[in-house]
Write a structure and sequence with these properties.
Aminopeptidase; 7-stranded mixed sheet; about 400 residues; 11 helices; about 25% helix; alpha+beta; 21 strands; Nonspecific Lipid-transfer Protein, Chain A
Length: about 400
């Protein structure tokens, strides 16, 4: 039985005491993995749940565009969602997230909102869609020596690395268009060493960021947090460079946000000895579907008209006509009979290119004629989903 909590207020933090209480609650919930709330506060929308002067829960939303279809869509990233253990089961988290998302949409113009979370079922009930479940790959450092490099990476972030990262981000669905402060935040709160590759003209062709940690009985493990490359040769060079640390490094841990193409490199190893471990899923909600479709990039060769019936978490359905022509997309309400029936979570997954095929759409519960499902899946299958940013 759920207990109503009308006495709980969802508000912006009113003073430093409430911010400190929220930060302490977040640290107790997540430990050292929690972002620096004090650093993010000037760049984020923050909401806390209070009762009788005590902070019971909190969450932050970072307004920042994300690339979908090659264009930067007004979006936001949700971070540090936490509820005190003794306050759980009272519906506080749902109210907190509803208020945060409303503020991100109405005050900051966000059309889509992302988060990393292990609480998949909870967010699915609130209308979010699961976009990707990445893996952490662990490989013996010595084995990566098999990837021969043709040049040596340089140390540090040089001019061109930031521009290279953003250009590569456009090729996927989901990466953040990082503002300048984002890079400073990462350097200040999670120091890592950066290595870069350049071609003969000085143009950046790849980079990686990594840290090391001691392991028993000897040596270190290396943890790769970011890895991006323009082409196969650059990627092999960076992987081979990691292998050259084998005299001191036992294992290379390739983070879940490093690059989604690493699994395709494993068949180049003479012996498969990689270990994979899933990480938190990336989930997405379209909080303004009409604006999300308008702002997204679309293939100029698409010529699609489909009627969609979208069910929200309360069971209410809205009819939309999806029109994609000449590189522009529109979503308008309609009362026409639907070609495809789906939920708001399915709509978010389709938007990010997460379905990939009509077969997968049918398995997760999207309904429609085969021809309609094929046409819908083709509208967003030109880019794979990937979120290389943590928050």
């Amino acid at each position: 039985m759920r207990i109503a909590a009308p006495e709980v207020e969802i508000v912006a933090p009113r003073d430093d005491r409430e911010i400190a209480a929220y930060a302490a609650l977040a640290h107790a919930s997540f430990g050292t993995e929690i972002p620096d709330i004090g650093y993010l506060r000037p760049h984020a929308l923050t909401r806390v749940a209070t009762e009788n002067g005590r902070v019971l829960a909190g969450a932050m939303g970072i307004p920042v565009p994300q690339f979908f279809g090659g264009r930067a869509v007004p979006s936001a990233c949700v971070s540090a969602v936490c509820v005190a253990p003794e306050a759980r089961g009272r519906g506080i988290a749902g109210r907190l997230m509803a208020e945060l998302v409303r503020g991100l949409r109405d005050e900051h113009g966000a059309a889509a909102v992302s988060l990393w979370t292990p609480s998949v079922g909870l967010y699915r009930r609130w209308g979010w869609g699961t976009i990707a479940t990445p893996c952490r790959w662990v490989l013996p450092a010595a084995q990566l020596r098999e990837f021969r490099r043709t040049t040596a990476p340089g140390l540090g972030i040089v001019e061109g690395v930031h521009a290279f990262q953003q250009e590569e981000a456009r090729a996927w669905n989901g990466p953040v268009r990082r503002p300048a402060w984002w890079w400073e935040w990462k350097r200040a709160t999670a120091p890592a060493t950066t290595y870069h590759l350049t071609d003969t003209s000085g143009e950046v062709t790849g980079y990686l960021t990594a840290t090391t940690a001691p392991v028993k009985p000897w040596g270190h493990d290396m943890f790769v947090h970011e890895l991006a490359a323009r082409d196969r040769q650059s990627l092999h060079t960076l992987i081979g460079f990691l292998g050259e640390h084998a005299s001191q490094v036992q294992d290379i841990h390739l983070g879940p946000t490093a690059t989604p193409v690493l699994s395709g490199l494993l068949d180049h190893l003479s012996q498969f000895s990689a270990r994979a471990r899933t990480w938190y899923p990336w989930m997405l909600a379209l909080v303004d579907p009409v604006e999300a479709v308008r702002a997204r990039g679309w293939d100029e060769d698409l010529d699609v008209d489909l009627v969609l019936s979208v069910a929200d978490p309360q069971g209410r359905t809205t009819g939309y006509r999806l029109s994609v022509h000449g590189g522009a997309g529109r979503l308008e309400t309609t009362g026409d009979n639907p070609d495809v029936e789906l939920t708001s979570g399915h709509l978010a997954a389709w938007y990010a290119g997460a379905f990939g095929s009509p077969a997968r759409m049918r398995v997760v519960g999207v309904r429609g004629r085969p021809a309609a499902l094929r046409r819908l899946s083709r509208t967003t299958d030109d880019r794979e989903p990937w979120l290389p940013d943590t928050f």
